[in-house]
Records
---
Amino acid sequence: MSKKRNLFDIILNIIIVILSALVIYWLIQLIFGGSPSLSEFNFSMIILMVGFLFKIYREMGEMKIDSRYMSKGVKEGFKNIKDDISHIKSDMNLIKKKLKV
């Protein structure tokens, strides 16, 4: 599953880089009176923005999943600390009884 994500991220990054280069090239051509029409330029900008938004949405989803697992781990860690402290208290009470303090 991780390889699929990495492959998908690589493909998405390549598409974004190619579209970015194309948009910059067409923008330079438009500035100097070149061939692409304004509608082609606008369409490529829209596709580029959709690609960026898709990438950001995907990364935010991965961060949400990671934070969910991390919060479960933190809760378990605090539960373990609470259990350890209760064991220490019972051991201290046992020591006090043996020492008759």
---
Amino acid sequence: MTPPGRESALFVRRRPASSLPPGRLYVGDETCERRLPGEELLAWLESECPAPGWPLTLATPPLTDAGLALLEGALRRLVRLRPDGFEVVANDLGALELLRGFPAARPVCGRLLSGRYMHFPEFPDEFLDFLADRGIDRVEINSRSQLQTAGGQLRGRGLLTHFHWPHMFVAVTRFCACADGFTGHPRDAIAACGRGCERFVGTYALGETELLVCGNALWTKHPGLPQTPEEVDRIVSDELIPAP
């Protein structure tokens, strides 16, 4: 059961095989620009998940110049689909700059961006000032330890917190270890992507820790957490499991 005042969201990484109950949806990807929403998913959102029953959040990854162009195209389409507004989780400073041109897109600080300070006792004031300057009032937190050390600081600044469950982010690379991840010369890896991550998720044991390998990123389950933390404002459910 969701505690009073806490929002729940579902991360939909591809068009689902069946209908979903109303509630906030996350679409997009946090680690690979090749998985920004394409025509099929956007058309599904338009026909099957209209506003206001499905408030929408677009998750975005670190971006190249080509990725920024892809994101701009997706934003223009989403503005038409959701003229009353939607959220964009930004994990890239360039994405935050691009969002200045889209008033309907409400920026959220992503967990890859906030996770740069995961092992700090708290966030630098300069970073929080930077978020405030861009009108950001929500921060996605990557780990329970970060929530415990910096949660009070964020609340003191009037910032709401999000927590993804059950997996936390570990690392991302431009080298995709997924089956069909790339072909040809390494410098052409991004252009030659075979979208193998849509069909494959692997596991890798690192000591007692089990890592989930999904495309160009590593994830693991939150250690020592039998259930979601109570002190967050939103829980984002995401099993990272590909379609059959």
